[in-house]
Amino acid sequence: MIFKWKSKSKQSVSLKQFMLQKGFSVRLYNELKNNANSFKINNKIENADIKIDEHDLVEIMLPNEESDDNVVSSDSPLEIIFENDNWLVVNKRAGTTSVPGPSNRDDTLVNQIKGHLIKQNSNNLKPHIITRLDRFTSGVVLVAKNRLSNSIANQELANKEINKTYLVVVNGLMEKNHGLINFPIGKNEDEIRRHKKDDGQNALTEYWVKGYKNKTTILEIKLHTGRTHQIRVHMAESNHPLLGDQLYDGPLNLGINRQALHAKTISFYDKLDDCVRTFEAPIPDDMLKIM
Predict the structure, then answer these.
(1) Average pLDDT of the chain?
(2) Count of CB atoms situated within 10 Å of the CB of 220
């Protein structure tokens, strides 16, 4: 896969600095610099020591990612929200596992995406899921289709530059229309469930009340940290567990048989096309019913 840019910098910069500015990680740069024919400057093959001047045409060859034989492909359909050469945005169905594991190795979201890429005759067959969701959480998932977009997205994740909002329905009536839940969470050894723990990871959740129905509250939520089960733990420990959330003692008789949690929107800066991209996943029927 070839990426091309024309330098706009009025000052000379090293090729390494130029690549880091474009989103390449140091690790990816180091890997490419040792490969012949990785770099072309003004249509001429160069080594990694070259300087980049204003108006130089920079071409970088990124090797294709071949298929992992341990990951089978699935023909199950995807609900695609957006796709180009670098990104795939899908609406994950509740009940679909994000990545292969002991309970499902053949029909996870990764298997389905691999099947989709094979049908497209894609040269890159290792999808990188950027925003993973729990099995029974529905909604928008961002996938990087190559190593450069994966590098860019992971840097933005680390810098908290990928913005996500969630829609949830919790038991009981929230007293405040807007609030912050801020306490660390962690888990006990050999336990899936997370808890409020003084020695846990810092976690910050912001919420807005969107409505009430039958002694339940509909919330829009923004995560300021990305801890496992963060929304579910914060709401349960605040005495407002999600409807249908059996693991965190949410009510199971109020019209939904999975945690009432939907990844609604995602927004990020696409450095490869120099634009902000925002996507929204439609609310699934089971959540519309209880709302």
Answers:
(1) 95
(2) 16
What is 64-159's CATH number? 3.30.2350.10
DSSP 30-51: HHHHTSTT-EEETTEEE-TT-E
* Whether 63 contacts 35, CB under 8 Å: yes
Asked whether this chain's domains 64-159 and 164-263 adopt the same fold, the reply is yes
Residues with active-site annotation: 134
CA distance 246 to 254: 12
Q: How far is CA 30 from the centre of its chain?
A: 25
Q: Which residue has the tokens 């929230």?
A: 174
Please tell me the distance from the alpha carbon of residue 284 to that of residue 291, in angstroms, as a whole number.
11
**Residue 129 identity (one-letter amino acid):** I
State which fold the 164-263 domain adopts: Pseudouridine synthase (3.30.2350)
pLDDT digits (tens, 9 = 90+) for 147-188: 999 999 999 999 999 999 999 999 999 999 999 999 999 988
Provide the angle, in degrees to the nearest 10, between the axes of the packed helices 26-33 and 147-158: 150
β-strand pairing of 138-144 with 261-270: parallel
pLDDT at 189 (0 to 100): 83
**Domain locations in the chain?**
2-61, 64-159, 164-263
Burial class (CB in 10 A: 0-12, 13-18, 19+), 231: buried
pLDDT in tens, 184-234: 999 888 889 999 999 999 999 999 999 999 999 999 999 999 899 999 999
The predicted pLDDT at position 101 comes to 87
User: CA nearest 78: which of 124, 123, 129?
Assistant: 129
